[in-house]
Amino acid sequence: MNLKNKQITIGELLANPQAKRIAQREFPQLMRNPFVISMARGMTLQQALGYAGNLSREQIDRILAELERI
Question: 3-state DSSP: the chain helix, strand, coil percent, rounded to 5?
Answer without folding.
Answer: 65, 5, 30
